[in-house]
Every structure is written in structure tokens, then in C-alpha cells.
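Morning, I've got a small favour to ask if you have a moment. It would help a lot if you went through both lines with me. Thanks so much in advance, here it is.

***
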Amino acid sequence: MRLSIEVSLDYTLTAPADILLQIEAAAMADQWLEEQSLTIWSDHGVTAVPGEDGIGQRCWVRADHALSARYKAIVVIDRPVHDLHVLPATPARAMPGVLIPYLLPSRYCESDKLEGFVRARFGGLSGGALAAALVDWVATRMTYRAGSSQGVTTALDTFASRTGVCRDYAHLLVALARAAEIPARCVSAYAPGVDPPDFHAVAELWLDGRWHLVDATGMARADEIALVGVGRDATDIAFMTIFGEAQLCEQSVRVDRLD
């Protein structure tokens, strides 16, 4: 799968601020960058830093009055899609230490408050069968509704309302998976067919020794998702983190299949 990605960001600032951008598709074993360019208009230097878990990269930008950035890329994706149902369970004690943060509650994924629900609703299931059941539950119980959540909405809020956007779907699935002792992390990504076109958020579940991309909204398949960054929740994968205040002027994201 080859994807064409075009991103345009234009913001004004009320005062000078440091900005952390995370909009570049990551170079990985199962996706590589055929072409890529990032242009940022700034009177100051731009510094690249590694993304969470060493996946992808972020850029530090200093903006005085405005931020304008343009990103273009052609990404080639060659990622196998595995049937979750048949994957075995891994006891928590046998998991590598790097997975521990993805078993624990985080700011937007209060997995500890969902453990009782998971035990009652999905008791008897384990491993991939349990993971698949959680994905199906989120996909069928949730209603996608733009504007139904805010930046402070958590997985528990979404569990109660049953509505949200991709960020909320990812948070809820990640929280449920962690409550089921399945390591899970949030992923920022690009994907074709996202409606409305925008930055996309999905989940990754760790099963049988590797991470598996899952989009509970059903808008994208694992083999057509261009991963940007990973983390515990939206705190780590935000496309832009502003240490100050900014106002949106214009923003657009376009992702097209090339073959």
C-alpha cells in the first residue's frame, strides 16, 4: 500500500511559545518513506528529537507570533494483518519490562476503574480471543460523533457516554485492554478514508510477542495505516503540544491511496 500525505497547519499565537510537533510518518520495518518533506516557518532553529519508545520523531519549534508548517510524504506500507482470535495469552510476569507502562493506568486511560467490568463481561476469555472481543465491543457499542468530546475527555467518560471520535475509541480500547492485562498503547497515524479527514488515532495491542494495530472505528485497516507516534495516551501522541496559547487559523490533512 502506498499513501500520499499532505498536511497544512496555520496558527496564531498570543505570545511567544515553544511548540512540539509530531506530524511526520515514522520510518519502520513495515513502513518506509519513499518521499518526505517538512517545512516550518520560524525565525528560530528547529530541533528534532526522538518520539516515544524511539518510534518516529518530534520537532521543537519556537514561534513568536504564528506557526505555519507543511508536510508531504509518500509512505509505503507492507504490514501483515494477523487474526487476533488465534493469538495466545502472555502472563504479565513473562512480559518485557518495556511493556509495564502499557499495562498501567494513565491520565486518559483509567484502566483500573474498568477491571470489574472486564472480569464480569469477558470472564473466561484470554489472549487474542479476549482482545478481539474487546475490539468488537468498542466497535459495536460506540457511536462516532464529531464534537461529542473534548480534550479532557477520558476513557471512563467515553465508557459512560458511548460516543466520541477516534481519540475516544482508542482511549477506551486501550483502557479495556490494560484492564484485561493486555499491554496497549495509543497511536497517532494517517489513514485514507478517515471521515472527516484529519489526524487519526488508533490502538496497538501487544499479543504473541509483537504489537498489533487496531482501529476500533472501523475506518482503516492495519495494512493501510501510516504510524506517526506511540504513547500511553493522547498526552504522548498529540500532533501539536503548545507550551503557551495558540489560535487555529487553518488546518488540513489529506491522505490518498496511490495503489
